[in-house]
């Protein structure tokens, strides 16, 4: 297999590039300095034969960008990817889609065909322009696929866990919990009790899904939900984090703060049956197994530095 990979230096891209190379595939992963996806002419320098283009490059909401930057990179960049695939007759375009387009679907399963249903509880980081830029890109992929111009695969990714994720530097609750557990410190859980449940998937399972779809360009295409198919409360997460990361004999005490509103406001549960049926894919890692692998990679990284 010969793959053109955009966003190869990002969280998903780093794992995916490594896993594809381990399979013996040839991966061309230009950096953002080598190729600006916003400009069609910069795609043309890579006009060779590929088995697939995996399009991960994007401006992410977590980093905070202007609406123009989101649309230039996420929407126009995807249009350039589509035209590149159409002109060069590349068998498949595989696109990483945010789950934010379904963030108002609460307390019921999210299906691959779930219509865009999204909003925002905060206007920071231009949340709506970000989501709309990704939705517009996915809509174009479906249109190109519908016209037979490009075989488009849209991988809607649930909440991803894994070592090296972008939210590390933002001190997210997940990473704060791990840090406290490693020190055996008390961990506060807010809510009365926490009821919101979310679907989490491990990074290596996400990458396996991308590999599976590349190996099956004859699949039905369109949206695929890539998640675990089960949902956890934040308390479920904390208990597993304590099991994995707390030092022997120094387990963190969970402090229940019922007087503080729960951080998470909406539940999410992904229906992954289409991926199971058509891609022969299902998660190999449970939430706890993912944490154990996270810990192993974290410790290896710390030893190397």
Descriptive notes:
This protein is an alpha/beta fold. It has a domain at 2-163 and 201-229 and 266-285: Rossmann fold, CATH 3.40.50.720. 39% of the residues lie in helices and 16% in strands. The protein is built from 9 helices and 13 strands. It has helices spanning 11-22, 40-44, 67-88, 127-146, 173-183, 203-214, 234-245, 273-279, 287-304; strands at residues 2-6, 26-28, 52-55, 93-97, 109-110, 152-157, 159-161, 187-190, 198-202, 222-226, 231-232, 254-257, 269-270. The strands form 4 sheets. It has a 6-stranded parallel sheet, sandwiched between helices. A 3-stranded mixed sheet has the order 7-9-11. α1 packs across α6, α5 (173-183) packs parallel to α7 and α7 packs across α9 (287-304). The protein is globular, with a radius of gyration of 20 Å. The model has no long low-confidence stretch (mean pLDDT 94).
């Amino acid at each position: 297999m010969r793959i053109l990979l955009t966003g190869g230096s990002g969280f998903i891209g780093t794992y995916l590039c490594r896993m594809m190379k381990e399979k013996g595939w040839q991966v061309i992963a230009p950096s953002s300095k080598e190729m600006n996806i916003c400009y069609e002419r910069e795609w043309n320098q890579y006009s060779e034969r590929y088995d697939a283009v995996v399009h991960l490059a994007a401006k992410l909401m977590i980093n905070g960008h202007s609406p123009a930057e989101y649309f230039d990179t996420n929407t126009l960049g995807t249009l350039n990817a589509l035209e590149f695939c159409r002109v060069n007759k590349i068998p498949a375009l595989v696109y990483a889609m945010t789950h934010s387009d379904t963030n108002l679907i609460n307390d019921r399963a999210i299906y691959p065909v779930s219509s865009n249903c999204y909003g925002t509880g905060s206007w920071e980081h231009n949340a709506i322009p970000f989501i709309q830029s990704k939705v517009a890109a996915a809509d174009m992929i479906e249109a190109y696929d519908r016209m037979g111009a490009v075989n488009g695969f849209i991988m809607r990714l649930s909440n991803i866990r894994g070592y090296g994720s972008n939210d590390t530097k933002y001190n997210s609750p997940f990473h704060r919990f791990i840090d406290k557990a490693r020190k055996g410190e008390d961990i506060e859980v807010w809510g009365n009790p926490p009821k919101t449940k979310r679907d989490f998937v491990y990074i290596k399972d996400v990458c396996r899904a991308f590999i599976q779809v590349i190996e099956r360009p004859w699949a039905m295409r369109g949206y695929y939900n890539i998640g675990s198919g089960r949902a956890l409360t934040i308390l479920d997460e904390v208990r597993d984090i304590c099991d994995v990361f707390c030092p022997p004999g120094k387990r963190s005490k969970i402090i229940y703060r019922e007087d503080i509103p729960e951080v998470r406001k909406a539940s999410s549960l992904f229906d992954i049956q289409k991926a199971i049926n058509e891609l022969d894919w299902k998660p190999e890692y449970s939430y706890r197994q993912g944490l154990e692998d996270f810990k192993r990679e974290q410790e290896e990284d710390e030893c190397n530095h």
